[in-house]
Amino acid sequence: MPAIHPLPMLWLLTDVRNDARLEQAIARLPTGSAVVFRHYHLDEAARRKRFDARAALARKNGHAMVLSGGAETAAAWGADGAYAPPDRLGPPSELLRIATAHDADEIARAEAVEADAIMLSPVFPTRSHADAKTLGIAGFHALAEATRLPVIALGGMTAERARQLDWSRWAAIDGLS
After folding, report:
1. How many CB atoms lie under 10 A from the CB of residue 44?
2. Are 10 and 170 in contact (CB under 8 A)?
3. Who's near 36: CB < 8 A, 6+ residues apart?
4. I need a labelling partner for 24 at 20 to 30 A (CA). Which of 55, 62, 123, 142 fits?
C-alpha cells in the first residue's frame, strides 16, 4: 500500500517554465493534491535545495511531494514518491511510485513492476513536447481502460480539457501554473 492514500486527483509538475510562479501555483492547489518536482535545469546541489524548500511549502499546504527520478534518490531526499520510467521506480515500497507511460508497452512494464499509478501522456498537444504525436481522447481512453492501475492524464491538460476528456485524475505544468 503506498504511503499516500488516497491517490491525489490533481498533480502539478514543476518545470523551468513555471519556476517563477511555483509558490503561488502550489498554494492554489486543492488540499490533497501532489507536486512532481522536476527542475532538471538545476545542478544537483541547487536542485536538492530547491526541492527541500518546495517540499516544505507543498506539505504545509497538504500536498504530496514526488521527486522525478529514481526511487533511491526519492527516498534519500525524503520525497513522498518517485516519478520515473518503470525501470527506475525500484521495488514496491512505502514510496508512492508513479510510472511514466506513452504506449501499451510502457503500461505493461509499469504493471510488471507494480507501480502505484501511471502518468499517461501526451493526451493533447503540449509545449513540453511540441512535435510529439498525441494520444487524443479515444487513444487515451483505450490505453487507460486496458490497465488495472490508476491513470493520471498528462499533456496539454487544463481543467477544461479534463472535463472534455471526462477524466478526473490529471496533471499539468502550464495548465496549473
Report:
1. 8
2. yes
3. 11, 12, 13, 14, 66, 67, 68, 83, 98, 171
4. 123
Contacts of 64 (CB under 8 A, 6+ apart): 4, 8, 33, 34, 35, 58, 80, 81, 96
In this prediction the pTM is 0.93
And the C-alpha cell for 28? Answer: 492554489
pLDDT tens per residue across span 110-150: 999 999 999 999 999 987 767 779 999 999 999 999 999 99
SS3 96: strand
Q: How many CA atoms lie within 13 A of 29 on its CB side?
A: 33
Which domains are assigned to the chain? 10-176 (3.20.20.70)
Nearest-angstrom CA–CA distance, 177 and 175: 6
In which residue are the cell numbers 491513470 written? Answer: 151
CA distance 125 to 130: 6
pLDDT at 19 over 90: no
Task: Give residue-wise pLDDT tens across range 55-79.
Answer: 999 999 999 999 999 899 999 999 9
CB 1, CB 160: distance < 8 Å: no
In this predicted model, what pLDDT tens digit does every residue of 75-105 receive, in sequence order?
999 999 999 999 999 888 889 999 999 999 9
